[in-house]
Specification:
- The structure is a homodimer.
- By secondary structure, the first copy, chain A, is an alpha/beta fold.
- Chain A has a single domain, classed as TIM Barrel (Alpha-Beta Barrel).
- Chain A is about 40% helix and about 10% strand.
- Chain A is built from twelve helices and nine strands.
- In chain A, helix 8 links the parallel strand 7 and strand 8.
- About 0% of the residues of chain A have low confidence.
- Chains A and B meet through helix 8, helix 9, helix 10 and helix 12 of A and helix 8, helix 9, helix 10 and helix 12 of B.
- Chains A, B: One of its GO terms (biological process) is L-leucine catabolic process.
- Chains A, B: It holds the Pfam family HMGL-like.
- Chains A, B: This is Hydroxymethylglutaryl-CoA lyase.
Chain lengths: ~300, ~300
């Protein structure tokens, strides 16, 4: 008996191809209690590239005091054997982070903003206006150096302190980041409360504010089990880049009850069933997630990983 | 800080109301290793009714040799204090099961068929034609006694032995069960491999074969994480009854690697976000699932239950 496979049945209105933006090595490992050795991180990235993932967010140049898990960012990039055609963006929280990223020779950076005043205050100790003032020189200098800049917008679908977040508020933040020069925005459901109608509302608000849908990516957390239904909704609305985390690694430690990102394997299963190209070898990816779960000493939360490996 | 809530944003093309057909007490407990005491089962059903669930599949009159977990079916129905307006169907595998259900005074029964020859052989030790021959007198006698009869069709989206299952094959089985007199068919993704385009294809095939969509229900397993995206797809296609299991209890022990049903809580979260009525009090339901998880001595696999109770 071979393993289960989805039957491939395309659905009208969906794209031929989706770009999976893999965040496991950064967003995933950043939120694990264990500090993973740098050689294991390098091996993780090598395996993810070999499994066919086209974009691997490799690490973050955040200050080690805040995220000790990624204190080895420069060392990791130095060890990394870059695969042909694979993009390796890194997160930079501020100008100091950008300096370190430029020293490491990266070609693609990401900044991490908030859609809400409260989370900007909690995560960055800044107001929203101060957040933009902090990001402006980062983006400007990165663009001048020939880098591409992705903008994360977190708390787009709710905030644990503010509760509901108006789609127009998200759109306003998104527009400012695009005007600043971000080539792509990743709209994050950091606490995982969003549902499909809400996804359409946020995407519609962004487009109405002048942000083209081709510049939007989605970043769903599966805290309330909604990530894949929301992803399907975003694909129907024209989004072509989806963030996911191998094996479902990660989450957001600042958001109470937030659990992992959408598992890349669960996304790949749906895309395979829909006949949407992505370039990933699912078995190689599952093997990588099982290996990483062993390094972390805990099982993967991905449903696909658990099903294909006997619930281990 | 109050608990997280989805923001309610309706989506065009979705219904105002969905009927949740709760299968936890039957499909869920049937597939648990532990045999739950009859008084715990009665309490479970009382709590589910109090939480607002409108349909509770209570038990099965299958032979105790095959499903010892539900050997107490008659005793359970005898203890059950039926809530006003709540429907309590029971599964009957054959005429002997129907006899026992009639003795217990039920008004709604369900039969459990297969979409594939191989699963009919494995589960019922019959060919598909023999399956229909066995069900015909069950349905006829139930209808004569004034009962309603639901028909389950299992393995609609794949079979662990046959692999892919043609949507036309599913539609043919569905049509025969409707012609026999079933008022509703529950199309089951028993191994959980289905994806959204496949859901549309199966529903389209059934409608093309003459089965009205208003008579169709869907029963998704979350083995590969696809259950909620598939449910959303079925709702867009006109389905108005969705099977789910409180806390994600259950699965199918005959299907290798099959894990639990769609968790009722995860479904309720999506319906709340979409502004679709269902009548269920989510907090009361979560409390019930946590209580049942304690009885079973293992955590609930529902994402919503875990998020709202701190990952317990």
């Amino acid at each position: 008996m071979t393993r289960d496979l989805p039957m491939t049945v395309p659905s009208p209105g969906l794209p031929d191809h989706v770009t999976i933006y893999e965040v496991g090595a950064r967003d995933g490992l950043q939120n694990e209690a264990a500090v993973v050795p740098v050689e294991v991180k390098a091996e993780f990235l090598h395996r993810l590239a070999a499994a066919g993932l086209p974009v691997l967010e490799a690490t973050s140049f955040v200050h080690p005091k805040w995220v000790p898990q990624l204190a080895d960012a420069a060392d990791l990039l130095n060890r990394l054997v870059r695969a042909e055609g694979v993009d390796y963006p890194v997160l930079v929280p501020n100008e100091r982070g950008l300096d370190r990223a430029l020293e490491a020779g990266v070609s693609h950076v990401a900044i991490f903003g908030s859609a809400t005043e409260t989370f900007a205050k909690r995560n960055l100790n800044r107001t929203l206006d101060e957040q933009f003032a902090m990001f402006a020189p980062v983006v400007q200098r990165a663009l001048s150096a020939g880098l591409r800049v992705r903008g994360y917008v977190s708390m787009c679908f709710g905030d644990p302190w503010e509760g509901a977040v108006a789609p127009e508020q998200v759109a306003s933040v998104a527009r400012r980041l695009v005007e600043m020069g971000c080539h792509q925005l990743s709209l994050g459901d950091t606490i995982g409360t969003g549902t499909p109608g809400h996804v359409d509302a946020v995407l519609d608000a962004c487009v109405a504010a002048g942000v083209p849908v081709r510049q939007l990516a989605v970043h769903f957390h599966d805290t309330y089990g909604q990530a894949l239904a929301n992803t399907l909704t975003a694909l129907r609305r024209g989004v072509r880049t989806v963030d996911a985390s191998a094996g479902g690694l990660g989450g957001c430690p600042y958001a109470e009850s937030a659990t992992g990102n959408l598992a890349t394997e669960d996304l790949v299963w749906m895309l395979d069933g829909l006949g949407i190209g992505h370039g990933v070898d699912l078995d190689a990816l599952v093997g990588t997630s099982v290996w990483m779960a062993e390094q972390l000493g805990r099982p993967s939360p991905s449903r696909v990983v658990r099903a294909l490996t006997g619930g281990a």
